[in-house]
Amino acid sequence: DAPDAFATPAPLPTPPAQAARPPGMEPAASPYIGDISGMLREFEFYSSALNADMRYFIYLPPDYASAGRRYPVLYMLHGAAGDKEEWLAIGLIDAADRAMRSDDVEPMVIVLPDGDLSYWANHARGGPRWADYVADDLVRHIDASYRTLAERPTGPSVAFPWEPGELFTWP
User: What is the pTM of this model?
Assistant: First the structure.
């Protein structure tokens, strides 16, 4: 049987209990994140395409504060029934952090934007412009706020933590 495309999505897993942090250490940006070497923060910015303040998580690799170099950016868009915490709940940031620490992947910035129930597409007849929000507003904001690589890839490329520590790239 094919899955029902309109079925109620499964709830996100319950976040693990958080260990007490030493004095002076910042609390985790999400209860889904374990002990990572990089930094995960939650911010918001104004999107002119949506005429709204939009929230996002950003992961900065372990060497971001000390290296002074520019980084590639991976934008991970959640599913239609998800939100910006979806990738955190399935372990994307923890897996990426481990892969960067072990030099299995190049250090990168990872952005997890909130897209409501948008399908990440511009709506017809003057409706919300979700694609413009991501392609224009979000990318411009991230490039202006963080040390990212200015040049864009010439072909499709995606890094995806299929299993913890295993990455799939296409093509």
Answer: 0.74
